[in-house]
Amino acid sequence: MKRLDTTVSSIRQVAEGYYELRFAWPAQGGDEPGPGRFVTIRAGGRYDPALRRPFAFSDYRAGAAGEGGEAAIVFQVRGRGTAHMAGLRPGDSLDALGPLGKGFGRPARGARPVLVAGGIGVGPMLYLAATLAEDAAAGLCEAPILAMGFRNAAFAPDIDLPAGAVICTDDGSSGFKGTVADWLAGFDPGSPPAFYACGPAPMMAAVARLAEARRAPYEAAVEQWMACGVGACAGCAVPVKSGGFVRACVDGPVLDGSIVDWEASR
Amino acid sequence: MIGSMDMGVRIGDLVMPNPVGVASGTFGYGQEYEPLVDADALGALYTKAVTPEPRRGNPAPRLVDTPAGMLNSIGLANPGLDAFIAEKLPGLRARRCSVVVNVAGKTEDDYLRVLERLEAEDGIDGYEINVSCPNVAHGGLAFGTDPAQVERLTRRLADARTRGGARRPIIVKLSPNVTDICVVAKAAEAGGADAVSCINTLVGMVIDVKAKRTTLAMGTGGLSGPAIRPVGVACVYKVSRAVSIPVIGLGGICDADDALQYLLAGAVAVQLGTAVFSRPEAPLEALEGIRAFMEKEGLSSVADIGALLL
Fold it and tell me: Which of A32, A107, A155, B89 has CB 3.0 to 4.6 Å from A111, enough for a Cys bridge?
């Protein structure tokens, strides 16, 4: 974990209201991001907004020997902080703190990773898909499937998608017409599936039901408002079925999807 | 002249190494921010509130961003007194800064239970009595708005200090959600408080218009951050003139200038809270700025800053 005044290397709009931000991240000794982990960014100046904004890493590329690496996030403009970030330009300074939280684990040998993304959840799932594709090439698991759901084609990101990626849109303007859950219901993974998901609570709950029905493991990356990001404030509470809460920032953001109380999450 | 400057701050029998602390609830128990902040260089670390029993805290969402601030409704989530002593205190004992335990409860006896038990433990330098949390149904703000209850609770806690030698100061944390904060400050002083800290958060609410419901699950929360700083400075100005015990200022402090506003208003020490979330380095940068100010003004003691206000 470190806080860096780093530099924006590129920013590009990838869908309606969605941007990919790439920035220098000279990782060393445990500072490599990893799929599912996140970074907090201080958007704007002079404590307004007062809180850093958390974003899952969507990519990381280690630098050549002696050079720094580059990390990326995908963000959606939702409020003042992200509106400010959309105005960043290459060369601008970026106050980034990370890597934070627990990332995704790897599937059992021979399992079929089924990655499910909704909306802004596409960022961490793209990163995970790329990592698992390397694992599959090394014979560690089956090739991953990435299913992504969007309201319509305008929200589907213009990003290089991995082989096996499926796009679902509510209105059928691109790919499968219906929700990701609808598509998954008719999907045969061939091998024992291992579910991974990031997206809105109804989608996360649907994947939980599917994983339970298939007795498959389910790793869920959760979203929550966050203040400290390091486990100090207990602000980013996520309700769990056993009663009580876990903290998205240090207990997660990747949690066992079967323990989360998705109905109580909003 | 830095060598001759006294950055220490006296609160009762305690001398904090410098005037800059981190506010309760924003810094956990000190280890969470490693390696980003050298907590040993702080003046004081105010722990997350400790209650007799573990508390899960309030339903989520507990946080929302607001203009130049934030609302929180954590609900005093903490692992409870036993776990605090077993798991958190060992790390705190090793600190070079003053360690002030924030004490909370639903009843007066709850506060007593925490303090009496902690009196038997080493490694604690003081108690901050939380009678101002706006996010719990019992205790907290319900106590802090009643001067008679504040006085009685403070007296019981002050009298319950059983350790020999230097007494750990009782710092009563005041709420701005009252008609006249000075009345409550005087009640704390009458009850034997060694200091007061002010202000805790202001009660606030954000409504999600699209969803037609409050953004926080509990409805209301406590407003903190730069948005409340002028309220805090005014409270410190008034309280420091109403009581003769030291006043510790907090509320929206982000840098040395903000801290100096509080010190000029009459505080002898400050706490940074919400700013730490955004810039973990902020407290130690503020300390450096206070030091530079004192050097420029030719002051030898932090306690002399307040006298500069025209």
Answer: A107
